[in-house]
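Practice problem: predict the structure.
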Amino acid sequence: MEKEKIDWKEYHKNLLGSLSNERLWSKAVVDGFNPHLENISSLKNEIENIEQGNYDEIINLHTDTPDYFDDFLLQSPPASPNGLCKEQKINMLLALLTSTIWEDTPKTTAKSSPYVCFLSSTEVQTAEGEGYIPTNRVYKENTLKDLLGVIVNTYFEDEKRHWLESWSTDHPTVDFSGIEDVYDSTYYPDHIYHKLRTLKELIA
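Answer:
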């Protein structure tokens, strides 16, 4: 077993739980041979080795049980997903567009529904509703995209570095040097880095 494949943080947590149980069971032995004392000693030794980074010594203790660490194997180092697809981007923008169009105009009181027809990458046709004269609009600038780009370019690399530092601290034995973009959306889910990634993919 290669030490790089083992989730030592999870294994350490499991050992602490086992140690707590062994201490509790040990108290139930009133007299005679107490097998839990030997177990406590072994667990404390393993815990100490983990905390000192002596992973090879721990592995050598269990070479007679090939599948001993199967419940504590790391998943493959997370790599970057493909990002937002075109449909996801459109849905995000349409959600913003529709809420903006109907802002302060409840549909129950509107005479008819406005519409937008996309003519090209820079031109749209809009009308306030049925019976209204449509208006063609040409947008030479993409102001919202530019503003989001400024936000992403200002904060993305710093927040990415901070998130990676946290991730690598919690996965000290994983070698991810050969992976171009390490990413795990489930790790530190409230970190602003995840939101910045989404914005970057949106305007890509």
